[in-house]
Recover the amino acids of this structure.
């Protein structure tokens, strides 16, 4: 249940068509801006693409599955494995901006798989942006890069990256974020980069976070971990899309230019996690969570399950890990003052309004099935 787990990993390969050479020399002011969005089949990537289309951008999307709706809207869809360095690099050719939202997400799996997608894939994007003189790169990171097993209560960007994080996803995302930040200003095109750390993206159409909570609630598999009063940030999908577009624009700023920086993104309305989950469950006709487990017990359970899963090479995710135990019991809310100042970002959809929209969406979806 950590930020950034909603993007999709691209895992099919294809050759990438080259942009016509002459199109690379048309001044940007005389044509629509060309944008590449990785993770196009994901919740964030797809939402960002639809907003870019509304702005009149010429969009290319990378994803693992066909997207007939996006293709019908005029999006060029490419199927590329993030580990295919040459193809990923070439996909950046002719672009003005690259939004890199794709990642391998999850709490379990082989380190090499996470490294290939999140580290190698991101470096290939950086190489493509640099070699083809893409102007801007907006990278979707995760707040989990600062995980240290303790509370983050109003933490800001001065918080150091975590060390020895017991989860491959944030470990590899931290490496990738560092590479993106270091790439800012790299010649020959003096690439401008910015990294965003949205926390727990949710909203209508979310295929992971909300459905997973509801499914486990229906099966009675949820337990309150810790004292149940920990506060967390959540990020409504429209606000996260706004943040990415504001970040792209802000890279043109002279004052407070965000180039090379990373920013926490959220709704700026920390909620008590377990009461919020219980409200969500009750709104969907599911009994609230009453059973509890202490953080110390949850961590010991997680460590035991991790050992068993490794010993027997079980492919599925363990029901508990040390990382998840801490995430469910500790404060995780962040100071987004820097994003407000440098990116001109302001969450426009409140938590209350977001919940109303989610319930309306769920009601409409249920009536259509």
């Amino acid at each position: 249940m950590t930020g950034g787990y909603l993007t999709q990993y691209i895992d099919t390969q294809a050759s990438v068509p080259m942009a016509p050479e002459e199109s690379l020399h048309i001044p940007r002011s005389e044509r629509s801006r060309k944008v590449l969005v990785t993770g196009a089949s994901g919740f964030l990537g797809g939402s960002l693409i639809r907003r870019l289309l509304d702005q009149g951008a010429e969009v290319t999307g990378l994803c693992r599955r066909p997207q007939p709706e996006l293709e019908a809207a005029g999006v060029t869809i490419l199927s590329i494995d993030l580990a295919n360095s040459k193809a990923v690099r070439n996909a950046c050719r002719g672009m003005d901006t690259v939004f890199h939202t794709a990642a391998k997400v999850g709490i379990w799996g082989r380190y090499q798989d996470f490294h290939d997608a999140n580290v190698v894939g991101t470096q290939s994007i950086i190489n493509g942006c640099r070699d083809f003189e893409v102007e801007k790169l907006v990278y979707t990171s995760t707040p989990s890069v600062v995980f240290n097993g303790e509370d983050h209560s109003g933490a800001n960007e001065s918080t150091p990256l975590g060390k020895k994080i017991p989860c491959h996803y944030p470990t590899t995302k931290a490496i990738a974020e560092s590479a993106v930040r270091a790439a800012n200003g790299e010649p020959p095109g003096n690439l401008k980069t910015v990294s965003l750390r949205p926390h727990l993206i949710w909203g209508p159409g979310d295929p992971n976070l909300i459905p997973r909570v509801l499914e486990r609630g229906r099966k009675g598999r949820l337990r309150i971990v810790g004292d149940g009063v920990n506060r967390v940030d959540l990020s409504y999908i429209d606000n996260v899309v706004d943040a990415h577009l504001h970040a792209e624009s802000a890279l043109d700023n002279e004052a407070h230019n965000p180039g090379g920086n990373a920013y926490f993104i959220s709704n700026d309305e920390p909620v008590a996690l377990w009461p919020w989950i219980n409200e969500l469950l009750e709104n969907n006709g599911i009994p609230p969570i009453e059973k509890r487990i202490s953080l110390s017990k949850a961590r010991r359970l997680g460590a035991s399950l991790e050992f068993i899963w490794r010993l027997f090479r079980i492919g599925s995710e363990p029901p508990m890990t040390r990382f998840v135990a801490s995430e469910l019991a500790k404060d995780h809310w962040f100071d987004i003052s820097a994003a407000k100042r440098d990116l001109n970002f302001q969450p426009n959809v409140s938590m209350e309004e977001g919940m109303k929209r989610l319930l309306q969406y769920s009601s409409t979806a249920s009536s259509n099935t």
